[in-house]
Design a protein that fits this description.
Layout: E1 3-6, H1 9-17, E2 26-27, E3 35-36, E4 45-48, E5 51-58, E6 65-71, E7 82-83, E8 91-99, E9 102-109, E10 116-122, E11 133-134, E12 142-150, E13 153-163, E14 165-173, E15 184-185, E16 193-201, E17 204-211, E18 218-224, E19 236-237, E20 245-253, E21 256-263, E22 270-276, E23 287-288, E24 296-304, E25 307-314, E26 321-327, E27 339-340, E28 348-356, E29 359-366, E30 373-379, E31 399-400, E32 411-418, E33 422-429, E34 435-444, E35 447-454, E36 461-469, E37 472-480
Length: 482
């Protein structure tokens, strides 16, 4: 996505020079027990600007329960902890995802005498929560769920040993988590498949996991092109080396898919990246992101436009700290230097990363306080797309112009005007009212903006684009003609 700003020069200059400034750590929990985030196959933080949602498991009640916390101002301040589970068994490793006001949490739970996958949702942005829904029901263990959502379709993957060895399973809801379909077994081999991660873009669902079928742990991939209704029998092997490749995390925007994982082919654990530019059909070469003599592990990835954000835990400083790296060109190139996010004498582990507007957010668990607590950090400008000042004109009123050209193939430009600082959301919808893409979701200063939408991943037809800013709401129609 390309944004051109007609805006005052001094503001754009500030945007350029304030790139990638991380603010101080914020402690989110404060109790005398253990609070822990989940492994990297899940995400413990998600955002729908300006609301941030964080989940973790917490032992303050004598056993592990799932807790939730939210910020309504992009991480400036935070509400109280909300306990989501209440049972005598342990509840672990939550994953969170959001679509509009509907917030979903999944986790694994021992309240049934063995570990099962559970789901819970809020329909008002995390203020109130419904009842727990048990998603799996077998005498074996179901562990480490990962979740992704697109509109009202919710996708969940996990590892399950009902087939004696660990296999990857999948389940979906097509009505926003009210009801759920049957379990779908995605892998079928005599060796172990573990730590799955899922991401969705439109109707294409992407799943990665680690697999031992080749005599060592390798990263494998599978996709569905019909929203999870069907899956091909063949898996795609992504890594080829005699060492081990572990703990993948996947993220997608449009047709560009990114996978990060830890790999010890270089003699110690390092973070690697791989991408596909055609929706998972073909894959590029492995890219080594870290290079030091210590262990780098448990990477988490998030994408927004051309920006790819990766966080991980790293032992190069003599203890485990959180590190960060980003690509500004969809993963084509990466900076040599890593950014150290934490600096304390105790352990900082299992980070998750998310974006909202111009913000990058990360959470992790940290033992600097004598027990493990949840910490949060944000970068207000780390996800700022390219901006250019053309003149100093400030509009007198809100407006949304007709896109041009129209009809178009495959790209079109949408212009809008903002007379005062506002939270601006600009979304594209299909004729059924389903969100196709979010073009803008951030606080913008007064100015006239142009946004380019590339419809190359969509079919010909009528689409609508809608802007909301302050009390202004406007919708227009456009035609993609291939």
């Amino acid at each position: 996505m390309k944004i051109v700003i007609l805006f005052i020069n001094i503001t754009c200059l500030f945007s350029v020079i304030s790139q990638a400034q991380w603010l101080p750590d914020v402690r989110l929990t404060n109790n005398d027990s253990l609070s822990n985030t989940s492994p990297n196959n899940a995400w413990c933080i998600t955002a729908n600007s300006p609301v941030l949602h964080v989940v973790w498991h917490d032992r303050r009640n004598g056993n592990d329960e799932i807790y939730y916390k939210r910020s309504t101002n992009d991480g400036v301040s935070w509400g109280t902890d909300i306990r989501l589970t209440n049972n005598s068994g342990g509840s672990y490793s939550p994953s969170i995802a959001v679509s509009g006001l509907v917030t979903h949490v999944v986790w694994y739970d021992y309240s049934d005498g063995n570990f099962e996958i559970y789901h819970k949702r809020s329909t008002n942005g995390g203020i109130n929560w419904g009842t727990d829904t048990r998603m799996t029901n077998n005498i074996y263990n179901s562990l480490y769920p990962s979740m992704s959502v697109s509109g009202s379709v919710v996708h969940v993957v996990w590892q399950d040993n009902r087939n004696i060895n660990w296999e990857i399973y999948y389940k979906r809801s097509t009505d926003g988590g009210i009801s759920w379909g049957t379990d779908t077994r995605l892998t079928n081999n005599i060796y172990e498949s573990r730590f799955s991660s899922v991401a969705v873009s439109g109707l294409v669902v992407h799943v990665v996991w680690q697999d031992f079928r080749d005599g060592s742990w390798e990263i494998y991939y599978k996709r569905s092109t019909d929203g999870g209704e069907s899956w091909p029998p063949a898996d795609t092997r992504l890594t080829y080396n005699p060492a081990w490749s572990w703990s993948p995390s996947v993220a997608v925007t449009g047709s560009v898919v990114h996978v990060v994982w830890q790999d010890n082919r270089a003699g110690n654990w390092e973070i690697y990246h791989k991408r596909s530019t055609n929706g998972g059909v073909n894959w590029g070469a492995d890219t080594r992101l870290t290079n030091n003599s210590a262990i780098s592990s448990y990477a988490s990835v998030a994408i927004s436009g051309p920006f790819v954000h990766v966080v991980w835990q790293d032992e190069r400083d003599g203890n485990t700290e959180i590190y960060y790296k980003r690509s500004t060109d969809e993963g084509v190139s990466w900076p040599v230097t890593d950014t150290r996010l934490t600096s304390n004498p105790d352990l900082s582990q299992l980070p998750s990363v998310a974006t909202s507007g111009s913000f990058v957010h990360t959470v992790w668990y940290d033992s600097r306080d004598g027990n493990t607590e949840i910490y949060y950090k944000r970068n207000p400008t780390g996800n700022t797309v390219g901006m250019k000042s053309i003149n100093s004109e400030i509009p007198n009123e809100f407006s949304l112009a007709q896109n041009y050209p129209n009809p178009f193939n495959p790209s079109t430009t949408i212009q809008f005007a903002i007379p005062k600082t506002s939270l601006v959301k600009l979304n594209v919808y299909d004729v059924l009212g389903r969100e196709a893409e979010s073009l803008v979701d951030e606080h913008l200063n007064p100015g006239i903006y142009e946004v380019e939408w590339n419809g190359s991943n969509y079919t010909s037809g009528v689409y609508y684009y809608r802007i909301t800013a302050d009390n202004y709401l406007e919708t227009r129609k456009m035609i993609l003609l291939k």
